[in-house]
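> forwarded from #structure-qc
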């Protein structure tokens, strides 16, 4: 079994398959984690970038409810996996607070909360007074959801790969797959270093980066930016240190870190040129800092680090896990949107069933005809 891509998706798939006793190889053209994983701010939540009501309008209520419930389960499964493997990734349980904004005001959030209740999700609407008293934030209202968390994505990645390696998984970096060939009895992967891998099945967990011989799915590339503040005294954090994000476009999202920093991200745009994205970091960082200081006044946050990254967005906001039509025995994994780590855990479960010749009960939610 070969996995092309050594980001969080590839690492969690490798660990899941290695735990199942399978012979696994991971190959990446860079060092593991140097793609979109390196830019992740790792807010681990079941809520999608697409609201449940909007998703219901796109794919039907029954399927939308299943997608949200599977995402909720994935957060719990990820927490259990890291605990079982002893992966020290600074996991912290958090509530997620979805603040009223220009996309959804307090009335829209009330309707969204009611829809989530019908889907048996741990979400409730709170008004402005309760939001201020419980979380110290001033908005017209918010949805508070349980079942979320935060972690260190780099430690999750290295912990998962190390755990997979202990079970026999082999990991090769600095080798780019340039050709995929079906041999009739399996798959041959040729690399730019004149090496090759022969395997029965292959998973391409390359994120938004596709190799030449693979068809592209229908998705857009979006740029996002983030800042990490200098450390602050624990007493200066907002009550409960919950995850905060806005129902706005572009939206701001905020979490804390184990070493007492604040991470803030957002300002997403369709810019997909790496040089221009990096050139925009100072201006985007200043905007994020201004928004952060407005959201949480009286703290005078200062930037310590700022960065930008790219990720893929699908029309529905759901990830894409699909067999590749022109390459039997190959599956493409694209953990679209802002829930990449949560989606990566689901991908690992879908892939495990596929490798065993079975079908995950929710696989149809994540297939995409364009792949």
């Amino acid at each position: 079994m070969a996995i092309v891509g050594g980001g969080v998706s590839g690492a969690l798939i490798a660990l899941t398959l290695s735990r199942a006793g399978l012979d696994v190889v991971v190959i990446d053209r860079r060092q593991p984690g140097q793609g979109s994983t390196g830019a992740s701010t790792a807010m681990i939540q079941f809520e999608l970038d697409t609201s449940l009501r909007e998703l219901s309008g796109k794919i039907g209520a029954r399927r939308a409810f299943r997608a949200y419930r599977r995402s909720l389960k994935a957060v719990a499964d990820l927490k259990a996996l890291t605990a079982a493997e002893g992966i020290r990734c600074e996991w912290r349980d958090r509530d997620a607070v979805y603040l009223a904004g220009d996309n959804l005001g307090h009335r829209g959030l009330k309707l969204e909360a009611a829809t989530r209740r019908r889907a048996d999700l741990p979400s409730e609407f709170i008004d402005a007074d309760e939001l201020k008293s419980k979380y110290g934030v001033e908005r017209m209202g918010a949805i508070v959801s349980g079942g979320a968390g935060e972690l260190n994505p780099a430690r999750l990645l290295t912990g998962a790969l190390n755990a997979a390696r202990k079970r026999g998984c082999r990991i090769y970096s600095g080798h780019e797959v340039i050709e995929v060939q079906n041999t009739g009895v399996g798959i041959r992967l040729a690399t730019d270093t004149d090496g090759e891998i022969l395997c029965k099945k292959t998973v391409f967990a390359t994120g938004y980066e596709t190799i030449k011989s693979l068809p592209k799915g229908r998705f857009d590339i979006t740029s996002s930016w983030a800042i990490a503040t200098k450390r602050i005294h624990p007493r200066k954090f907002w009550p409960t240190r919950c995850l905060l994000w806005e129902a706005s476009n572009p939206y701001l999202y905020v979490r804390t870190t184990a070493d007492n920093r604040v991470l803030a991200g957002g300002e997403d745009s369709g810019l997909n040129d790496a040089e221009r994205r990096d050139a925009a970091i100072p201006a985007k960082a200043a905007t994020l800092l201004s928004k952060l200081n407005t959201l949480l006044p009286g703290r005078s946050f200062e930037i310590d680090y700022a960065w930008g990254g790219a990720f893929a967005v699908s029309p529905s906001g759901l990830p894409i896990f699909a067999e590749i039509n022109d390459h039997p025995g190959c599956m493409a994994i694209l953990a679209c949107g802002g829930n990449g780590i949560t989606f990566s855990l689901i991908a690992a479960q879908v892939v495990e069933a596929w490798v065993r010749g079975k079908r995950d009960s929710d696989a149809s939610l994540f297939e995409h005809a364009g792949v």
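QC bot note: Residues 61-84 form the longest helix (24 residues). The mean pLDDT is 91.
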